[in-house]
Structures are given as structure tokens and as C-alpha cells.
Amino acid sequence: MTNPNNATITTVHRAEFTASDALKIPTLRILQDDGSLYDGATAPELDKDTALKMYDTMVFIRVLDERMLAAQRQGRISFYMQCLGEEATTVGSAAALSDQDMIMAQYREQGALRYRGFTLEQFMNQLFSNEKDLGKGRQMPVHYGSNAINYMTISSPLGTQIPQASGYAYAQKLRGLDALTLCYFGEGAASEGDFHAGLNMAAVHKAPVLFFCRNNGYAISTPANEQFVGDGIACRAVGYGMKAIRVDGADILAVYQATKMARDYALKHNEPILLESMAYRLGAHSSSDDPSGYRSKEEEALWRKNDPIARFKAWLLKQGWLDEAADNAKTEQLRTDILDALKVAEKVAKPGIEHLISDVYAEPIPALQQQLDELKAHIHKYPDAYPITAGRLD
Amino acid sequence: MTNPNNATITTVHRAEFTASDALKIPTLRILQDDGSLYDGATAPELDKDTALKMYDTMVFIRVLDERMLAAQRQGRISFYMQCLGEEATTVGSAAALSDQDMIMAQYREQGALRYRGFTLEQFMNQLFSNEKDLGKGRQMPVHYGSNAINYMTISSPLGTQIPQASGYAYAQKLRGLDALTLCYFGEGAASEGDFHAGLNMAAVHKAPVLFFCRNNGYAISTPANEQFVGDGIACRAVGYGMKAIRVDGADILAVYQATKMARDYALKHNEPILLESMAYRLGAHSSSDDPSGYRSKEEEALWRKNDPIARFKAWLLKQGWLDEAADNAKTEQLRTDILDALKVAEKVAKPGIEHLISDVYAEPIPALQQQLDELKAHIHKYPDAYPITAGRLD
Amino acid sequence: MAKMNMLQAINNALDLAMAKDDGVVCFGEDVGHFGGVFRATSKLQEKYGKARCFNTPLTEQGIAGFANGMAAQGMKPVAEIQFADYIFPAFDQIVNETAKFRYRSGNEFNVGGLVFRTPYGGGIAGGHYHSQSPEAYFAHTPGLKIVVPRDPYQAKGLLLASIACPDPVIFFEPKKLYRASVGEVPEDYYELPIGKAEVLQQGKDVTVLAWGAQMEIVQKAVEMAAEQGVSCEVIDLRSILPWDADTVAASVKKTGRLVINHEAPLTGGFAGEIAATIQKMCFLHLESPIERVCGLDTPYPLALEKEYVADHLKTFEAIMRSVNF
Amino acid sequence: MAKMNMLQAINNALDLAMAKDDGVVCFGEDVGHFGGVFRATSKLQEKYGKARCFNTPLTEQGIAGFANGMAAQGMKPVAEIQFADYIFPAFDQIVNETAKFRYRSGNEFNVGGLVFRTPYGGGIAGGHYHSQSPEAYFAHTPGLKIVVPRDPYQAKGLLLASIACPDPVIFFEPKKLYRASVGEVPEDYYELPIGKAEVLQQGKDVTVLAWGAQMEIVQKAVEMAAEQGVSCEVIDLRSILPWDADTVAASVKKTGRLVINHEAPLTGGFAGEIAATIQKMCFLHLESPIERVCGLDTPYPLALEKEYVADHLKTFEAIMRSVNF
Ligand SMILES: Cc1ncc(C[n+]2csc(CCOP(=O)(O)OP(=O)(O)O)c2C)c(N)n1
Ligand SMILES: Cc1ncc(C[n+]2csc(CCOP(=O)(O)OP(=O)(O)O)c2C)c(N)n1
Ligand SMILES: [Mg+2]
Ligand SMILES: [Mg+2]
Description:
The complex is a heterotetramer, with two copies of chain A (394 residues) and two copies of chain C (325 residues).
Chain A: E1 11-12, E2 27-28, H1 48-73, H2 87-95, E3 102-104, H3 110-116, H4 120-127, H5 161-174, E4 181-186, H6 193-204, E5 209-215, E6 218-219, E7 222-223, E8 243-248, H7 252-269, E9 273-278, H8 297-304, H9 308-319, H10 324-345, H11 366-381, H12 387-390
Parallel strand pairs in A: 2-8, 3-4, 4-5, 5-9, 8-9
Antiparallel strand pairs in A: 6-7
Chain C: E1 2-5, H1 6-20, E2 24-28, H2 44-48, E3 53-55, H3 60-73, E4 76-80, H4 91-97, H5 101-104, E5 115-120, H6 135-139, E6 145-147, H7 152-164, E7 169-174, E8 182-185, E9 198-201, E10 206-210, H8 214-227, E11 232-236, E12 239-241, H9 245-255, E13 258-265, H10 270-281, E14 291-295, H11 305-308, H12 312-323
Helix pairs in contact in C: 1-7, 3-4, 8-12, 9-10
The complex binds thiamine diphosphate (2 copies) and magnesium ion (2 copies).
């Protein structure tokens, strides 16, 4: 008899549940804390330049996060989100991609963004919502995006990028591009209905997407064990008929290796793959959050030792690819550069009033143009109340 | 180190994908076509009365479906949906429940409804949207429901009942009731985001829900292999940390046994379980559908042989519990009864005009009352245009 | 020219769009081999292959998300939502994502190529889950365009314009008219303007405004009014967003009166927006209150559909109330 | 009486409701131990246990579906949607399910015990995903009630009334006022009526209508107008659905003029419904067009928030336009 149910029908005659933990997915670990490899592990092929670019990106992001969190505390920017503890996760995965691959991120993936080449000035312009911001000052800080480097502009609603990644990748396949889409999301966002829709559609329509879950243990205050009961996120893959792989998110060699392998496979077979990177959100959720309300300093302290940058640095030193003194000097210089860039960006003007209505449509619809004209007249009447725009109405 | 990621961390040092088919779930089969049991299978404990009630329910539904589909073709009702081929699935599972358990159905579960005691008159009144319909003539035919027998009124939007079942069962648990919720849905509806939300929430909040997927191979014209890639629906359970069991949906003993076992477990442990019943939607999707546009007569013919009623009948005969002649006479009588009830119900008046606005709120809000008053005045002016209500405006 | 019903006109439009631009891809539940439950995509899979016309899994939020992604890549997805009543699971993807995609990115990315097609409206004994007219839910969303055709000719021209449009469009198809509305339709490619209302009949006493399937109904009412010596100006709004306030206002300035008809419930329906705008634009010209003839403020009923709907008699009464004020 | 800010008043209302009825259960993202990202459910888990105040997984459609199920069983879920901007994934569960639950079953089942609480509105530099005012999206939905408080006293009384109400309620909390609005609040249980507007200030020249956080803004405008010798009648609508047309109409019949202010974009916003209704109810009394002062028809901006919002100056201008027409 034909099987219309799309399932493998094997038979048993005694009722027995399939256990809730019937599937166990191991975690790939290559690099140890001291920079040596685990027994039986081999490092991925990685040339010195790439390795150093990865390292520099992690350091850049670490320093940027420190500085901008401080800037937020000083009231210079309104909001910030760090990625402390997850630098290897996003840099290692981004490094395994081709520049033509689209990246769709959640918000904590500045590592990937920087790896792609987003400049310090671009970071700053976005964070200060100034007129040089590619996003025209429309979104809260950290909602970066850039067409030129194939990094989709971030959107705050969680999970929405997941089915979008499936559609984007399907289009890449239809266009015959040698490129796929990598989609980052948190283990919290993986609870959204869009997760289910996105993974299932990618599997059914054979879209080359790397679904990359950053399982960092928390969604704001909600610990992962109040988010789901299954064994992490990776075990969901089998439900979609998808391959999966889990990595230690503080181990950049493991992240790189797994992503590279997944990319090759996905492109070759036009199949999505689910990756899960296990890490810990070491900082607060955002500058608006205070984790002391929901977790202990002891827990944080334990994880603070598990530093992805220190681990990679130890490896690089072992390889003889890193000069520690030069590196320290470079980091110092970076601190200065960032502060300088910050000072420049905060003085750049806000976007002009025409950008209140531009990009709502390709061209403003008449009613909207009229609203802008009326607004301009109003500002002319009360210039003091609208200092940002009053002086330059045209 | 503590593990905040809520996953079992076992380590490997060589990258390897977890296979997309790493989990295989067998199908429970107890009863063979000839009424004998499979080797190694034992029949569930089932007394004669219950077994005959199950059988009668299946026959009732089969005859009702035949008659009402004919009535729809004659233009007497506007719409109908059969459950041909799935009678064992819904009757077997309903029979394994307590009457206090809530049933939340999709629309093709008239077997469960009848088993619960929905009367022939109640079926008819709903199908004819008359004033005796418990639902006050507001929903299309087959959208049954009854508070008295704990059968939630059906709603057309697919999948919405799934997270509702989780909430309902959570409330049952909080109330300390010795009852759970059984939630039916199709393998098509299982693609909705609500499926993901509902299963995950039930697992996290330990709500006693039996998620019962009727995998009948089709969602209207869409075959299951264009609906998902995974191994059926049951394999998704592991992603939610949930137990699962799969049964042959034409084998009422297997369905009954699995549901009973799942109910006991779920109530005892306050845990949801996912059941998958493999059957075939032998009829059209609905009276508006014509399957010849998307599947072959040959495929249907193969499945027509796999008749759940004939199979169960063979077993009952073997048990010596069924008298074939008496049974045939009873079925004949049923045909007459149904036709009689149909003739009565189609003559019952439509709901009165007050039910145009009742139940939108517990009490009509003023604006709505005013709209009704204006409408009545309007109908008074044009009575011929509104024959259903004009004669009895009060 | 050929005689086509609305489904054929829509199918023909999709066919021409797919032939013209291989970025046009049609998908949705049952849209593939079967051609959709209403058969609007009939034969398109045969003609353009499974990659460009296909069934999706049963998930409206997934369909919308997938469509957003494809459009962001530069393709032109034409996604079908099987019934407008089932568009709500996609609401977040449409209202928070589709509508804001270009704006939020500062035009780094856009989903301008996207069209959602969806059958809407009552008159088919469908009850509240197969009859809704949800245009007003979307009309409060800057970034979207919303189009509703009244007949096959309009359907083809407006759908082709929607696909060509650089902004995302929700295209509501009056399913009651799918087979019932038949007319002459040019076989070649043509577009009709989005954002322009059409004056179907000149009149001097009162302006009567509607869209989609309600056009037939207001025509009936207008004929009844004519028998009473009332001269109606009849306007088909065609686009709900943007909507053509200038054409409506010009008419109302002439007639001094306005009756708006729509299928959706009164409260929060789009007639409210129109009335609010027109009372301001035409304050000194209005000779009677603007009348709204709409569905009652209840879910769409089944048994009492006739009583519920904004029919020609209620419209006629409103016209007469308006002129006799 | 005690001095409370709006968050404390809401927290106090939830506390009283949970103490009074063990069917009341609070949940949502981060609502449990942490007490919600704004801390509205602070200490409730400690006091009433994890079973009655808990975190949910991150899924608004799940939260709403779960709440529907609990309410159908007879409990009184008070579900929090972390930001009103994120209520859209729950749109289907709310608009197609919550709103129609009682109606579609012929009252066999209902979800009358259900309340959705959600912080809405701008003024916190949140951009378009932390500033939306989506009340109009829901106001087109028969079966729902919609309430918006303006201060702590109102918040407590209206929230308790919402929980007691036999119909499902969406309770929009102006998050800008969470800590900023402080006032005297009785410590005991009390309810304020749903569906009744409140006249905050009598006046004779023009009626000024708003709700929620905009009340403060219109008050400022009204003071400016008073300096110009204009006497404004000020109304807080409080309930959007049902809305108190009679109170508004009585006021407009007196003043002859109406200015409506809301945060949401103009087109399709609830001011349209109000204007459409009032122009009909008060046609012969209106001395100038009804004015709407609303957000622009764009997503809520970030850098140019000041320019975008329906502020006191724009409201003042509208008042003056109205009286000088
Ligand atoms: C649809 C939606 N609901 C709620 C929020 C509010 N919110 C922002 S971040 C967040 C937690 C996300 O956690 P996770 O996905 O694990 O990512 P992480 O912050 O850990 O990187 C929540 C609830 C949102 N942005 N979107
Ligand atoms: C949200 C939603 N989308 C689409 C539909 C239209 N629809 C009704 S039944 C159906 C197919 C359902 O298939 P399945 O869940 O497998 O159940 P079956 O009909 O096989 O019993 C579809 C697409 C709907 N009712 N609700
Ligand atoms: Mg997380
Ligand atoms: Mg099916």
C-alpha cells in the first residue's frame, strides 16, 4: 500500500512511548582553554590571515561593547546591547561564510557584522541615529544593516527573520547564486511560531539556510529551562527532517568548523541545517536590564572564566601567529579610535525632516507629502520646539 | 560549570551532523484485517458494552456521512465534511477518555462527538443552522460543540485550538480536576505556528494534554510530502521533550490502547504527549472539493480496502459479540432515523433576529442594540426582502 | 478582447506576469498542482514549473515570512492567503515586517516586489470564517498598499499594476464575484492605476462610494434612487491605501452628500476614515451628514446573513435619508 | 489613600484581584520571578506561587492561545504582552478566537474572564518597535473591549473592572506614564466603569478628546488655548470599545466643535471612527470641521520623534483652527 502520510512505517505490536529524550546531540569541542586541542580533535583549515582577522574582530567587538555600554551609562546613547561571551559564536560562523552569503541576524551578532566589514564609523552612525546612519536614524541602537555587505537590517520583532531567511535562500537558489543565507536567532526567539514556519518551509522547499541558534541560556530574565523542555534547540531538527550540529559557542574553532561543513553541505544539497551554539549571555540582556534580579553573581563568575577570546588567543599564541605586546598596543589604539569615532558621530546632525516620510513607500504617497508640508509650516511657526529640524527646513 | 542552556552536554571532537532521520518511531498495530490479532499483540481490556458502543458509533458516523453528503448534493445543506477512513481514529481515542476530559477538535472528528453522546437531533440542528442549534446557526455545517458533553465548539481557523488546549489543560490541573484535554488536529494544521507554541507551552508548564494528530496524508490537495520532510509528526515530540506514540489509525484497538495509556501517563505525571494516528482521508476534503484534481482513483481504491469498520467488525464477530443480521437491521433502521431527523430539522425555523447580536458580548453593548433596533425598523419596511425574520420581529 | 470571469482574468494576469518576469513566483496553500481552492493559479505550475508555482505548508505566517524574504532578495512573490479570514496569523509579518521593511532599513532593503492575493467577503454562506473583509485592519498601516477590484477587467489591470508596483500590495479579491462577474477583458498586458478612484456614473444629488463586490449592490440602490428622481454620482474607490480623497472630495463638493458602503462591520471600518476626511475637506459643502452603510458590529453571521449585510435596500434608504435630510 | 505611580497601581490591582479570586492567573514573558520587564507583576509570584504567576516561553501567539484556553475553562487569565508592538503574532488568536469565542459557540463557551495587558505608546525613544499604539487595529473587532487608563487611579479601577468584566478586554497601559504618572490611589478594591468617557473639564467653545498618555498633552494645549480666551471641554474616552458616543455627542452639541488627539497614525486610527460618528450625531451643531491631531502616516520614528508626535502645539493649533474656522 502506498504511504501518503510521509512517514516511515515500521510496526510494533506492543504499545510503548518513544522517550522524550530519545535523541541526544553531542557538542563539538575542538579547542581547550589553554589553547591546545582536545585529544582526537583536529583544527579546521585556517590560514593565518583569516585566523587573525577573526581574532581582531572579536577584540574589536569586545572593546566596542565596553565603550558603548559606558557611553550609554553616560547618557550619550539611549540604548545598547553587548555580546559578551558570544564573540566566538558569531565571528566563527561569519568567518566560515562567503561574502555573498546573506546574514540575517537577531541583534546580538555585531561580531558577524564587523567580520563582514561594517566600519567603526558605520557602527557609530547607527548608534547615534545621525544622518549618516545607513538606516537614517530610524531604529534603536544596534539595529544595524547594510546592503553592500549582505547583512540584512535587523528588526526588533523576534523570530520574524527566520521564515524570511527561508524565502531569501529559496530566491538565492532560484537565481542560481552560489550563496546561501545564515540566520541567527536566540533560544528564546526559537519559541516563536515563526521558527516553526521558517524551518519547516525551508526543509520542504529545499532552501539553503543555516539556521543558527545562539543558545545563551537566557531570554531576558527567562532561563532556558523555562523556555523549553527538549534537549536544547538542535534536537528539533529531526522534526523537520533536517540535519543538525551542536557546538561549544566559546570554541571558535568548533564554531568555524561546523559552520563551514554545514555551508558546504547546504549549498551542495540545497538543504537547510540547524546549528546550535552553546554559550552564556555574560552581560545584561541590554542596557535597560539588570540581571541581578534573576541570576546569581556566582553563576556569572563561573562563566566569565569561559572566555572565548582568551581561548582563541591561547591557540594563536601557540601557533606563533600573535605577538602579545603588539596585540596589546593595538587594543589600546582601538580604545582611542573608538572614542574618537564616537566623538565625531555624536556631533553629526540628525537626519533631515524629509526622512520622516521617505522610504515609507518607494515614493511618498500624496497624503503623506501633504502631512509633511503641513508639518514644515507648523515647525516654521514654532521653531524653538523642534530644534533638530527647525534650522534646516529647506 | 552549571549548564544554563537546558541541554545535555556530551562532547565530541570530530564534527558530524546528527542525521535528519536519527529518530524512528514505530507504528502500533494490534488488529489485522481478518479480525485476528498480530502475533505478539494483545487486545486492550475492553468490555463488550464499550466495544459495541464504539462499533455503533463508527457505523452511525459512516451512515450519517453518507446521508449528509447526499443531502448536500441535493442542496439541502450548504456544506459537509466526511471522516471516511478515519472512524477508528476518533472513536477509538474518544472511547479511551473519561467524560470529564475536554475534547478540542479540528472538524473531522464527528466520531468522538457522537461517542460523547451528541444526539442525532443535535447533529441535524447544527447542519441546518436552525434555531435549535446549540451554536445558534452561526457557523458553517460541521462546526459542532457542546458544553454539556465537554466538546469545545469547533473553530475554522486551523491550529488555534492547539495552544488553547494547553491553557485549558493547565487550568484543569490548577483546578485539581481529574481530567485532561485531548486536542485533535490534522497533519496539515500541524504546520501552523500555533502548533509549535501549543506543544512547547504544554511541555514547559506541564499541562496534561493529549495532542492527537490525525495524519491522513492530505491537507485539501496538499499531500503530506509537500507539508513536511520529517518522519511524520510524532518525531517532533522529542523537540519538545515530550513522549510520543504512533498508531495505525484504521486499527481501533491500537488507537484505544495508545490513547488509554497516554491518558493514564499524562494525568499521573502532568505531562503532554503527542500521538499520531496514520490513516487516509478517503473522501474529498469537503463537499466543495474534488480530489480527482490531485490524486488517482487507484490510490483511493487501495486505501478503500483498509476499512476500519470492517476490521473491527471482524474482531467483534470473532469475539461473538456481534450478530450480523441484527446489526444489518440496525443499520437499515439508522438510515431511516437519519432521514426522519433530517426532515424534521430542515423544517425548524432559523434563529430569531435577536441572535444576530446576542453573544457578541455577555450583554449587547448600546451601539449594537441600536443597530438591531434600526435593522428591525428597516425589516418592517421591507418585509419581503427578509423572509426569515420579517414575520417574527416581536 | 475575450470574455472572462474574474478568476480567469486573475489567472491570465498571473500568467502574463510570470511570462514577463521570471522573478514572479506564485505560492500558497494548494496553489500548486491543484491551482488553488478557487483555481486562480490553475495551470501555472504546469506552465512555469514547480519552482515558480507551488504549494506551501499550511502556515500563513510562514507564507508571509517566506514572501518577505524572497521579495527582499529582489524577486516578486505573489503569495496567496487561501481566505482573507486566515490572513491574521500573518498579521505580524505583514504589519510589522512587510510594511516597515524599506523604512526601517533606510532603503537598504525593501520588499516592494511583494503581492498578497486573498479572496475576501461574504455572500457565499461562509459564516464568520469565510466571509470577512479585513481591509481596514491593514489600512492603518503605513507602508502597505491595498487594492480591491470590482470586475474582471479591473482585476486584471489592477493585479498587474500591483505586481509591477515598487511597494508591497495586498490585493483583496471579492470571491463572491469570482465566477459571477463576467466581462470583456483585453488579452494583452495592461495596468490600471493604484491610488485612483473611478467615477462610474456622474450625478448631482449625492455621491455613493464603495469598492469591490459592493459596487454591484450600490448600483442597484442607485437605480432605485433614480426611480425616485435622485441623481447619484457613483465612485469605486479601487485603492483603500492610498485612497483618492481628491476625487471623492471633488464629487462631494458637487453633490453635497456622501453615502459610503462597505461589507465590513461599521465600527473601525474604512468608511470612518473616509467620512472623517471628507467632512473636513468638504465641511462647507455638506448638506447632510455622511452616511455609512456597513455590516453590523458582530462577526459575520450564517443563518441571518441577509439581515446582516449592507444590501441595496439599506443603501437606498441611506441615499434617501441623505437627500431628504 | 496612598501615593502610587502607575506601575504600583497596576501591581496593586493585580495583587487584589489575585487575592480575591484564585482563578486570576498572571503570565507572560518575564512576568514570573522577575516581575516583568517593567515590573508590573513584581512580587506576585512570591505571593501567589509559580502556578499563578509565571514566565511563558517567548511566543505571543502561544500566550494568547493559552489564555484563551484557560479562560474557556472558566479561569481569569491576565496575560501580558511585553510591548504592544509585539501583540501582532497574537492577532489571530485575539481577533479570530478571543473575540468570537462566545458568539460562535452560541454561548456554549466563552473567554469572558480574559484580560490582555500590554504597554503601548511612544515617548521613550523606542522607535517603531517600542512605541506603537495599536488600539485601532482591535477596535474593528466586535467581541473585544478595549480600555486605556490615563493615570494611576484610573489604571487600578479600570484594570479591576476589566478583570471582573464578563467579556475579554485588551488593557493598553501608557508605558511612558508607568513611573512618570503619580497620584493618590485608594488601597482598597474599586472598579471604574468600562464604556464610559469622563469629562475632565467643562468648557463651551470646543471639545477636546483623547485617551491614555495623550491626556497630559491635550491638557497642555487646553491651557494654552485658555490663555487665548478659548474655553475647552476636555474628555478622556477611557474605553475605545465600546466607546461612549453619547457623552462625546452631548459635549459637541454644546460646544459645536471637536478636536480629537491620538498617538497612532492618522489614517485608519480610531479618531476616524469618532469623527464619522459625531459628524452624523451632531451634524446641525457642528460649527467647524472635526479636527484630528494624530501621528503621521509613517512608522513611529526615532531621531525625529518630536516632529512626528501629536504634541500640545499641534493640538493647540487644531483648537485654534477649530474655533477660528
Ligand atoms: C515578538 C517579540 N516579543 C518580545 C520581544 C521582547 N524581547 C526582546 S529580546 C527578548 C529575549 C530574546 O531572547 P533570546 O532569543 O534568547 O536572545 P538573546 O537575548 O539571549 O540573545 C525579548 C523577550 C521582542 N523583541 N519581539
Ligand atoms: C488558518 C487556516 N488556514 C487555512 C484554512 C483552510 N483549510 C481548511 S481545512 C485545510 C486543510 C487541513 O488539513 P489537515 O490539517 O491535514 O486536516 P484534514 O482536512 O486532513 O483532516 C485548509 C488549508 C483554515 N481553515 N485555517
Ligand atoms: Mg538567549
Ligand atoms: Mg490531513
